[in-house]
Specification:
Length: 277
């Protein structure tokens, strides 16, 4: 028999549209209707998951919370980054309301200001960069671009954390050898190549052969000259700059200052979901 209690469970409290509309859907994982994604508030279990340091570190906490609060998204890790960012803001609003306290430092007088920002101004203003229009010619080949997925971004962050830790460990050694640094450099370069490849959709040779195989793309990125690769990095950078996250205008609380400055929120789980009393 069906549990008679089910109709008393939490229900979606809002619905959002995914900024990308699923147009780069890499693995056919987007819901049929990307304009109506129901969002439920977090459960007590979700909050506990978010407070587990290990889960936070590998990005799994966010995925577990997405699965719990956004049931129409079967594979949240395969969403492109900007869609996952918007989901995160939506879950925050659905769980704690649209006001969020932030602490900023005034750039004019260094006063520490506690302010409350309205997350609705963020959620309505996600802008998807024009990946389809972007192109770079690298060593005669045409590079086309795509947004990276949540899982790919998460891997980049984990790698960065791992290398910083390894570097710290090496620097603590009594007698670090050049080999120690060499192996670290090799790992960093390989991670960098993967990270750059995350934004490459395809590479077409001058005679029209299109390559979409990720391993081949990573190999290409590893083997072209630094100057050529910089062309890719420049396009990626300008695309990422287009991923508009609105800044909040914060008025300084210092009576003698009262100047306004801009503050941006970061999608960092560890502080994004801290509920202040
Ligand atoms: Zn000030």
């Amino acid at each position: 028999m069906t549990n008679p209690l089910t109709k008393y469970y939490r229900k979606p409290v809002m619905s959002i549209a995914l900024p990308s509309s699923g147009r780069w859907d890499p693995n056919g994982v987007y819901p049929a209707d990307t304009n109506d994604v129901p969002i439920m508030p977090m459960t007590a279990m979700d909050e506990i998951v978010l407070k587990t340091p290990d889960a936070l570190l590998n990005g799994k906490a966010t995925l577990d919370v997405f699965k719990s609060c956004c049931p129409s998204i079967a594979e949240p890790g395969e969403l492109i980054g900007i869609d996952a960012d918007k989901l995160l803001v939506a879950v925050r609003i659905a769980s704690y309301g649209h006001n969020m306290d932030i602490t900023t430092q005034c750039p004019h007088c260094n006063e520490i200001n506690e302010s409350t920002v309205d997350l609705r101004t963020v959620i309505d203003n996600f802008v998807v960069p024009s990946y389809d229009a972007a192109e770079a010619i690298v060593s005669g080949c045409t590079v086309k671009f795509r947004p990276s997925t949540y899982n790919e971004n998460s891997e980049v962050q984990q790698n960065r954390f791992y290398y910083e830790k390894t570097l710290q460990q090496i620097s603590k050694l009594d007698d670090p050898t050049p080999e120690h640094y060499d192996s670290l450099t090799k790992m960093i370069n390989s991670a960098l190549a993967r990270s750059i490849s995350n934004n490459i959709k395809s590479i077409t040779t001058p005679n029209g052969e299109e390559v979409t195989n990720r391993d081949f793309i990573i190999e290409f990125v590893t083997n072209v000259s630094k100057d050529e690769l910089e062309k890719v990095a420049n396009v990626t950078k300008s695309l990422q700059d287009q991923a508009f996250v609105p800044a909040f205008l914060i008025e300084c609380q210092n009576e003698k200052c009262r100047k306004e400055s801009k503050a941006k929120i970061t999608f960092d789980l560890s502080n994004f979901f801290v509920k202040r009393s």
